[in-house]
Specification:
With 161 residues, the protein is mainly α. It has two domains: 71 residues; 70 residues, no CATH class. The chain is built from ten helices and no strands.
Length: 161
């Protein structure tokens, strides 16, 4: 799998130069080398479709990868990317539920900050603007050594009025 991973990483490194359709084709060629139910290959196929703006095709592939036992580090990436996909498919409440479950189970996950960012976007898309800002500021506050407490307090006081 190391050689396969290196070749997949090379495709992603060249994606901007290749363009969307050629990237999907190159990823699919590598995915075809793996068993049909390989969770990492399914994740890569989903990511390629996401990259190409084909979210409706990406969603079932992300779900299959996760159901197939996708391991870290790809598992966390798949959850965040699936949530982003759901948001782009106009399903922000579903995206938010997925991210909330992830953050509840793994609050210290290396991608927790990204999960909070996408949760804020989903909240905004769902018309919950104060909640979205609270989410974003709440994630940012711990990284503000001087003003973190003030930011947390102001965030808590936000409302949509």
């Amino acid at each position: 799998m190391d050689d396969w991973r290196q070749r997949m990483d090379a495709v992603w490194a060249a994606a901007d130069r290749l363009g969307e359709q050629a990237t999907v084709a190159a990823v699919d060629a590598l995915v075809a080398e793996r068993p049909a139910d390989d969770p990492v290959a399914l994740f890569e196929a989903a990511g390629a479709r996401d990259y190409a703006g084909r979210e409706a095709e990406a969603e079932p592939l992300y779900r299959a990868a996760l159901a197939g036992g996708l391991a870290e580090p790809e598992r966390g990436q798949a959850i965040v990317q699936l949530a982003s996909t759901l948001r782009n498919l106009d399903r922000p409440a579903e995206a938010l539920a997925l991210l909330r479950d992830f953050l509840l189970a793994e609050p210290e996950h290396p991608l927790a900050g990204a999960a909070h960012a996408f949760a804020a976007l989903a909240l905004f898309d769902d018309g919950l603007h104060a909640d979205a800002l609270r989410e974003a500021l709440g994630a940012l506050a711990p990284h503000l050594p001087r003003y973190g407490g003030a930011v947390e307090a102001y965030a808590a006081a936000l409302d949509d009025d």
